Amino acid sequence: MTEETEHAIEVEKLTKRYGDLLAVDDISFNVRKGEVFAMLGPNGAGKTTTVEIIDTIRSPTSGKVTLLGMDVTKKKHEIVPRIGVLPQGFSSFDRITVRETLQYYSRLFCCMNTDIDGLIELVDLKDKAKELYKNLSGGLKQRLGIAIALVNNPEVLFLDEPTTGLDPRARREVWKVMLGLKKKGKTVFLTTHYMEEAELLADTVAIISKGKIISMGSPGALIESNANYLVLTLKPVDEKAVEIIRKMGYETIHDNHKDITVRVEHTDDVQKILNAIKDAGATLLSLDVRKPNLEEVFLKLTSAALRRDPAGKVAE
Amino acid sequence: MNLRVVGANLVVKIRSFYREKSTMFFMIVFPIILILVFGALFMNQDNMNFDLCVQDFDQTDSSTQLVKTLEIHGKFKIIKIDATISAAQYANDNKLNLILTIPKGYEGTFLQRTALNDPDASVTLTYLYDPSSISVSMKMKILNSVFAGINQKMSGMPPFIRSAETSIHTRKYRFIEFFVPGIIAMSVMTLSIFGTVNVNTELRQKGVIRKLSTTPITRTDWILSNILYQFILAVLSTIAMLLVSYAVFNVSLQINAWLPVFIVLDVFAFVGIGMILTRFAKEAESAAAAANAISFPMMFLSGSFFPLEMMPGFMQTVARILPLYYVNEGLRASMVFNDHIAALRYSAIIAVFAAVVFILGIVATKWEEDK
Questions:
Q1: Is the separation of the CB atoms in B256 and B334 below 8 Å?
Q2: B368 and A93: CB-CB below 8 Å?
Q3: Does one domain contain both B116 and B194?
């Protein structure tokens, strides 16, 4: 397999400026065909700018972006029919029903054989097929947005913050849809600021902060390479145990008097803490030792990035 | 350009329109209400019928005959007032602007003049009137002309100067017939300008345009479907207005090929203005305000409601630089006067304007994000 066919997206030295504001700062990465690629970052990190340059909504200041082997700045007309996009803050026509909306977008792509019912089923909107768009809840709107992005059976799917602003239940329902797409082997470019989402769905995660990619790899690899520590959570019966751990000088991640979460280097440290508690005559209700999750890695990485460049400007 | 895409867009726009009842009301029903209200007002002007209060102190056959003459020749609706009450008091109490009093002895003087041929015999009828009233001078003018007729007849000589009234129009036109083309021009303008501005700024603000920019629909498809949609609305609205005008006021208007020509030009000109406003207004509210700021003065200044002659000279000059004026006059030339040369002249002017504005509108319409 050649490089061109292996990668759905190739981004090379991409930079985007809005006047003085440097939104995307010389980033390079590739997205393999068939993988779910998540760009993870806080608000204003440059996620949306990056995805909108790749999916042809915006144009870059400099750098080269190749999508399905074509330059995005030169081949918009050839690219558009082969991709599906759920833009950030997606919205549609208020007084058009779910089914009519899908029919409309299908006609825009001149797809004669779009399986509208199949799409409705895929995003679980069968009961709402005759509902007007304006009467849908936020989660249902996003699910319709994903279905719309699929009307042309795209080779690459772009989902820009698909779950932002949704309640936890609606978010999980959108995830279910996205997991279904992952199973089908679609190439998906996802942006999110939810670590859970990236951890659950992505094959590759790129953590972006202030327009720069600060770390990239599979969720497991990211955790492995950036988390050479363990997270210990203790729930003691009384506050005495908490006092003891504090005095031992471990870095606390979370501490609310009732329970305490600390960062430890080795399993030996766990043993030391347990012994100290036992020696003091305190007892524990529960104990949890685990590797850090992506959220903790993310917070560690982005706060390190912030410390490196506290005066830097950021943009959405 | 892709006709399937244009068609799909058109379907979405028309569905959105008929599912939004308030838009439907303002776009279709509002102009009809205007026609009904103004039509009813103007109808009274066409057939003026004033009330006239008469206090007859004479109460004879001759005085009754005089009142009857006033009723027939002056087209007055006569209200008789009892001779025993104070006319001034009565006028004040009943907010009357004019009472004509016929003095006692009217018949005697009348017979002295007609039977005995006494040239000195004359009678004085009194107008008890409210000078602050607007219509009173009109009533007195009519009364004077009726009395002049009676005086002239009694002198027994045929009149020396006669007047012949010939309208410059080949037939008598009613006010409503001038009004309807003006309302059609105005409604199509507001439909086009607000339709374009409201829909496009809302869709842009909500991010629908951004989504559309990731589909194969082009700016040309979008603009074309918008124009077609506005044209369909304009035709529907015009048909509704004409039906009401014919049914209620029995207007006599020429419906010929100029009507669709002017509607098309009206749509192009004001969709063009709408597209320019959409480009420069940051938010939906400011776009609507800008559309109001342009369309409202235009409505009143370009002669849609009032004949231009009623306005001061400088405002007439202003009217002649407004595009709506040419649509108004063009529609009147074709629908009222059947004057094809004038219609052609007006259509040429508005066509040039529409072409310029529409091209500017296309250039101004943003499709891709420019940032």
A1: yes
A2: no
A3: no
